[in-house]
Amino acid sequence: MNIITNKKNALLFLFMTAGHFLFAQIDKKATEETRNLYQNLKTISKEHILFGHQHALEYGHGWSGKTNKSDVKSVTGSHPAVIGIDFSDFSGQSNDRIENTKEILKQNVIDTYDRGGITTVAWHFNNPASEGGFYWKDGISTASISLIKPGGSHHEEYKEILKTIADFAKSVKAKDGKLAPMIFRPYHEFDGDWFWWGKKYTSREDFIAVWQFTVSYLRDTLDVHNFIYAFSPDNRFNSEEEYLERYPGDDFVDLFGMDDYGDFGRDGKYDLVAAKKKLKIISDVAIQKKKLAAFTETGLESIPNATWWTDTLLKTLQSEKLELAYVLVWRNDTVSPTHYYAPFPGQISVPDFLQFYKDPYTLFEKDLKNVYRRNFKLR
């Protein structure tokens, strides 16, 4: 069915069965705005894809702490449709730093909601049982998933950390008095070995136990009802069976994702055939299970390929009949001259990115209207 013919003006309205999609959202008490966002993301994914950028509003290439600024907006006139933030400083830091971070991110989330954009949350979780931060460091880090599961030595501490997250989720009350929904993506890239929760350091059973407890405790005990829960390994799978090897079950996941830099030009290596296959797997799983799918992280550091946006990313996304709600590229560092994944004024890929921006398939924040309501449409 052809839903959209005009990116800017056409009505995007494809609710079925008396105004509802039969999608398997896991929180039956989710707020109305969260339910609407969930269904609208599925609708969007049938004909379009939202563009996202990590830490887009907090800082960018050569700047930080500016109001209503992003590198993407400086290039296109619009913020990304999806803004990435991180709960990394919600634990393992001083109380002052935790509270300061919460206030900054609270305003970020509320402002994004008020403008009509969407927030997704990564969690670079500092190891609660050892030094070393969120990365695995030989001789320092502890394999801690087994320690924070129910019955583990650090389980009570883990519950306190989750309470901090729950308090934040309940604090993001916007101008309309509603809580801003967020896509929460814990334990990402769990099939790699660079994080302490990686596959090398934890059993399948312990990983699933911690995931299930995390969702249940936030949703059912702490009454967090404005989260959409995303499951996103890295790209180390070649089949649906491999992708779902650590899947915690249909009652604990709303969105199927994948992080993939390696197939998209990292170290000069491209394998777009493999990339298409993997994206098709997550899209198909989501369709089968009546859930969402998204390309949760990708990008090419420094964007040395001037036509990467249209010749690599866009062509790959459009090469199959994929249903992906959004694609998110990683952050633009404030001080590094090379660590950036979205263009800024003067960067060599700007002309191509503008073509990517103008393509009817891609949506940015300016394209959205009422994404948290049932009468959602494109501007």
From TrEMBL:
GO terms for cellular component: extracellular region. It catalyses: Random hydrolysis of (1->4)-beta-D-mannosidic linkages in mannans, galactomannans and glucomannans. Residues 1-24 form the signal peptide. GO terms for biological process: substituted mannan metabolic process. The record marks 188 as: Plays an important role in maintaining the position of the catalytic nucleophile. The keyword Lipid biosynthesis does not apply. It comes from the Bacteria. It is found in: Secreted. Its EC number is 3.2.1.78. The active site is at residues 189, 297. Residues 32-366 form the GH26 domain. Keywords: Carbohydrate metabolism, Glycosidase, Hydrolase, Secreted, Signal. Coiled coil: none annotated. SUPFAM superfamilies: (Trans)glycosidases (SSF51445). Substrate binds at residues 124, 194, 261. It is an enzyme of class 3 (hydrolase). One of its GO terms (molecular function) is mannan endo-1,4-beta-mannosidase activity. PROSITE patterns: GH26. Belongs to the glycosyl hydrolase 26 family. This is Mannan endo-1,4-beta-mannosidase.
